[in-house]
Write a structure and sequence with these properties.
globular, alpha/beta, Rossmann fold
């Protein structure tokens, strides 16, 4: 997501080995950071490893959250919003810029999330879509069906109903169903069930494997993105494509796509529940009602409104 970003001078990607190899990697990186003589280190994560690396940089100014056992590694401490929070995560992280004298809070219109557009990747995705049978006149619908934990997974049967209803009797539509590494087979299962219900029309449903840069290029080509509160949704937010966000335990004020309000976003959720928002560790009722109580019909209606708007904008 950050590769070739115009605001970055250097990007260092940490490996995740285990045991002694991880210790050796971290020590090498610590020496590299110290040799670079940074003026400021900002720990946006707050985990033990990131706090230690911030300290190891020996930057004169090291900024981090007040977390028990780690504050000694920073020179400037910022209070962290308690979880579960209804405050947007962008605002929570923006607090770390306070010691630098940077005013806030920011507005999405002025500081949208960004991800560089890669023309070569866009061309590759266009070729892959053509190989699947997607033509220029098709309205591409992107549906992301997985999440990193069960607290953000809308039921697979609901996704199947969504795909079937959006594609059936709409020959100009093509649905691309995606899932992430946490559930690699989730997209294939949804596609298989949708194709069985659609019959011959199921040819307009597919589940290609894409990396994050290809995902962004795909969404940019699409008429709507539909998915839960996960990383791919925020990749989609770096485009102007309409978004339908399915929210479970988190609330809109914390997780809405951080981009210009002129770009359509519609939130679909179960509504007020005494257990929502939650810490996403234990489902108190035990039935994930914040997700299971979201009818597919509501998400379908939101997607239809987004598709209608996209058609209107295209015709202008």
């Amino acid at each position: 997501m950050l590769r070739d970003h115009p605001s970055l001078n250097e990007l260092i990607v940490l490996r995740r080995p285990r045991g002694l190899e991880r210790v050796r990697d971290d020590l090498r990186l610590a020496r590299r950071l110290r040799r670079s003589c940074y003026d400021v280190a900002i720990d946006l994560h707050g985990g033990p490893r990131s706090a230690w690396l911030a300290w190891s940089s020996q930057a004169p100014m090291r900024i981090g959250y007040r977390i028990l056992g780690r504050t000694w590694m920073y020179t400037h401490i910022v209070e962290r919003t308690p979880e579960p929070s209804v405050r947007h995560s962008v605002l929570n992280q923006w607090d770390l810029l306070g010691p630098l004298g940077i005013d806030g809070p920011p507005a999405p219109a002025a500081t949208p999330v960004e991800m560089p557009r890669d023309a070569g990747v866009a061309a590759t995705v266009a070729s892959r879509l053509a190989a699947l049978g997607v033509e220029d006149q098709h309205e591409v619908i992107v549906v992301h069906v997985s999440a990193s934990n069960p607290f953000k997974r809308w039921p697979p049967a609901s996704f199947v109903e969504l795909v079937v209803q959006l594609v059936r009797d709409h020959p100009a539509r093509f649905a691309i169903v995606l899932s992430g590494p946490s559930e690699p087979a989730a997209a294939e299962r949804v596609v298989d069930d949708a194709r069985r219900q659609l019959g011959a029309q199921g040819q307009r449903v597919a589940a290609p494997q894409l990396d994050l840069r290809e995902l962004r290029a795909l969404v940019e080509r699409s008429s709507v993105y539909i998915g839960g509160d996960s990383g791919p949704l925020h990749v989609a937010a770096t485009t102007r494509t309409p978004i339908v966000e399915i929210l479970g335990p988190t609330v809109a004020s914390r997780s809405f796509p951080w981009r210009s309000p002129r770009c359509r976003v519609e939130i679909v959720e179960a509504g007020p529940l005494p257990c929502r928002p939650c810490d996403e560790r234990t489902c108190a009722p035990g039935d994930f009602r914040c997700l299971t109580r979201i009818p597919a019909a509501h998400v379908i209606a939101a997607a239809e409104r987004a598709l209608s708007e996209a058609q209107t904008l295209t015709s202008l």
